[in-house]
Please model this.
Amino acid sequence: MLSRQKRTDIRKLSSKKHRISSGQFIAEGRRSVEQIIRNGHLNVVAVFTDGRDAPEAVASVQTLSKADFDALRTTERSQGVIAICESPPPVSVSDLIRATGVILALDGLQDPGNLGTLIRSAAWFGVAGMFLGTGTADPFQPKVVRSTAGATGAVPYASGDIVTFLREAASAGRRVYVLDGGPASSRLTDLEPDPSAVLVVGNEGKGLSDEVRAAGYRSVAIHGLTAFVESLNAAVAGAIALHHMIPPPES
Model:
């Protein structure tokens, strides 16, 4: 049985302010918890279940009453597993820029599902890291963590002012490409894979910020084959661009 204080502390992890002050976040769902534990990137503080079988790879688990578990869960239809994890610290901007490989930069991406999907895509394609520009959703909020399906913590990240970051990355020799469907954009398929690239994905509704547009970086577009759909989802577009921009592994 959880103490009232412990239950309150865990429930507060739904708040960004408390996640920051405690250095912890909630991961919910069997698949997510199992994958986080297998990856080994995060320190898992505690695992709770509602009485169902514990996930694979879980060494220690606490079974809660239905009332206690329901007080902690963040979804309507829970899979009966919750983990409390320590939030990984960000890397420095200079270390991120010096890392080997493509960097994915997000310019005010706000939808938790899109952010979670892009974190998972970035992990899948082995990016050097991610830069989360001001206005981007918190990567440790419950909806984002669920959307990563266990990839939380697998990708190094930094955050801050994206204009300053892109300027520093370009000065260090990285080539910056911004996803934009405008008429002046190059076709993504006309570009060669570029391991030094910084790929920028903008906000779901507004696209790139005025400041990033004004910086004059090369814009690239993903061209569709029909006119039935106006645009791609931001997470889908980012994943397609990553697949194209990252060189294939050597055989």
